[in-house]
Amino acid sequence: MPVFPAKLEEDIATVLLSEEQIAQRIAELGHEISQDYAGKDLMLVGILKGCVLFLSDLVRNIHIPVEFDFVAVSSYGADTKSSGVVRILKDLDESVESKHVLVIEDIVDTGLTLRLSYLLENLRSRRAASVKVCTLLDKPSRRRVDVPVDYRGFTVEDRFVVGYGMDYQGRYRSLPYIGILKPEVYGGG
Ligand code: IMP
Ligand code: MG
Asked: pLDDT tens for residues 125-140?
């Protein structure tokens, strides 16, 4: 039975990245993306659900015309890691042909779920003009499958994080900052 804390923050042991640090970095990323894609037909493709807070803050810091859409891709599916079978659960609403696509991810970890590699391949096959990756967090020390990261918010150590879109068992996505859970939340002592 899940235990519901009176306040979500009670489950957080450490704040790793504060609201202010996140906002500052996203302003920089938005500026960089605005310069790099000036004069180009830019389309952000967010991978649900972890990207939602990041994407909504990022687009408000991009000062050139930008469209966005979302995809949901199966991950941590029992077969994903063993067989490499990935499925699109929710597809884009419109064509990406001749658009410059920037895929928005919450965190790139092992790369083993293959959802990002699969999606990049898939978008290229739909004749996007370019396909690049922007992730809020990168855990390079955990990488097992090569994933190209073109824009990254922060590089983090090998710790499981929650908040600002990222979940543990579906919870904590709504926290406005990124933190580390208390060990007892995982069922420990
Ligand atoms: P991977 O790169 O294939 O290992 O999987 C990346 C996905 O795993 C992310 O998009 C997250 O949904 C999830 N994930 C990986 N590390 C964390 C973490 O520290 N906190 C929350 N979710 C994570
Ligand atoms: Mg997740």
From this structure: 999 999 999 999 999 9
What pLDDT digit, counting tens, does each position of 9-52 carry?
A: 999 999 999 999 999 999 999 999 999 999 999 999 999 999 99
Q: What is the pTM of this model?
A: 0.93
Atom of ligand 1 nearest to the CA of 112: 3
Decide whether any atom of ligand 1 lies within 6 Å of the 77 Cβ: no
DSSP collapsed to 3 states, 108-126:
ECCCCCCHHHHHHHHHHHC
Based on the residue annotation, tell me whether 41 is a catalytic residue of this protein.
no
Alpha-carbon dihedral 141, 146, 150, 153, rounded to 10 degrees: -30
Q: Which of 70, 107, 142, 181 to mutate to test the pocket of ligand 1 (most atoms within 8 A of CB)?
A: 107
Q: Which residue has the tokens 């929710």?
A: 90
